[in-house]
Amino acid sequence: MAVIVGLVFLGVFGVVVLIAAASGSGATEQTRAIMTRLESAIAVGKPEMADLIVDVRKSELMSSIPWLDRFLSKLELAPRIRRFLYQANVKWTVGGLSLLCGVCFVVPAYLAYWRTGAIFAAILVGFVTGAAPVFWVFQKRKRRMNKFEEGIPEALELIVSALRVGHSLNAAMGLVSRECSDPVGGEFRLTFDEMNYGLELKSALDNLVVRVPLQDVKIVCTAILIQRESGGNLAEVLEKTSQVIRERFRLKRQVLTHTAQGRLTGWILTLLPVVLGMLLYFVNPDLMSMLWKKDLGIKLLYAAGTMIVIGGLIIRKIVNMDV
Predict the structure, then answer these.
(1) Fewer CB within a 10 Å sphere, N or C end of the chain?
(2) Residue 228 or 25, more confident
(3) Per-residue CA distances from 202 to 101, 209, 272 (Å)
(4) Other Cβ atoms closer than 10 A to 110
(5) Residue bearing the bigger pLDDT, 57 or 115
(6) Closest to 139 in 3D by CA, of 104, 93, 181, 88
(7) pLDDT tens digits for 174-222?
């Protein structure tokens, strides 16, 4: 039985590796930049750009493997994953991420089954390691969004300074795209290019909100659009908006400081049972292996895992505060 399961794992692993190797010839970074500019040019004059940018990007390949691309194109979740990868600035396709998760699932799961002989433990290890690439992309996206959020006040100050010396909003955004570092400069550069191609201001700002779904970006775009509709001094409006964002950012930092102990407690309480279980297994494998070899032990593992997840979610709900 163990030999058959091992051969199955090795067979699946070999197929996944071959597919991953075949999908390695994705679009280069230069090609992606050209395609982004072409998308903006195609979209000139269209009324609803926030919806159009999704439709245009659906023409891109989800994977360089034809059958995988056709399969992923039918999934409603695939465009969201692609947008998720873009927001994290990860140059992967949806198919590449899927195959990487598959490899990270198969190899550790096989090693866990080969070491313990327990299907339950192998599947559990596979799910944890298979989710590791998604978790890495999520953390990279979070860091990029945080960096963008920190750079918004500086970008607004540049726009305000440019407006006060007589430049237009379009020229002010061009100044931000040149002076600010990524990701702020890159996103404003794309917005600046869209406006130069003739896209309406509202559509270009809607695209910016789609690419960078931050509350501060929504506040800035809303302030600009309201000023365009009602009139007034745009420089003064953006200056006050920058002050609001800075105050909100300061309050958010205070909240993170006051809830640091609670978040650390949550991580410790969540990881402590897992770490202790691994240590006890290396100290006394026969004793710990009874948890997945006996029916009662499996039920206890299910109960313990459920309570750990519920406890972690409760602590997360307590310490997470929207500012």
Answers:
(1) N
(2) 228
(3) 38, 11, 50
(4) 20
(5) 115
(6) 88
(7) 999 999 988 999 999 999 999 999 889 999 999 999 999 998 899 899 9
DSSP state of 181: P
Residue 297 to residue 187: CA distance in whole angstroms: 53
Which single residue is written with the structure tokens 């795209």?
177
R_g of the chain computed on alpha carbons: 25
- How many angstroms separate the CA atoms of 110 and 126, rounded? 8
pLDDT tier at 32, thresholds 50, 70, 90: low
Cβ 42 vs Cβ 132: under 8 Å: no
128/175 Cα distance (integer angstroms): 45
SS3 per residue for 220-275: HHHHHHHHHHHCCCHHHHHHHHHHHHHHHHHHHHHHHHHCHHHHHHHHHHHHHHHH
- Confidence tier at 323 by pLDDT (50, 70, 90): low
CA 241 to chain centre: 27
Q: By the 8 A CB rule, do 112 and 126 touch?
A: yes
Is residue 248 within 8 Å of 227, Cβ to Cβ?
no
Q: What is the largest CA-CA distance in the chain?
A: 78
Lowest mean pLDDT among 24-28, 84-88, 182-186: 24-28
Record the tokens describing residue 217, joined without a space: 């970006």
Token pair 């896209």: residue = 199
Report d(CA 147, CA 154) in Å as an integer. 12
Q: Coil, helix or strand for 173?
A: helix
Q: Within 10 A of 190 (CB to CB), how many other CB atoms are there?
A: 20
Structure tokens at 298: 């499996």
> What is the identity of the amino acid at 194?
E
Closest CA to 149 of 88, 215, 207: 215
75 phi and psi, to 5 degrees? -85, 135
CA–CA distance, 51 with 43 (Å, rounded to integer): 11
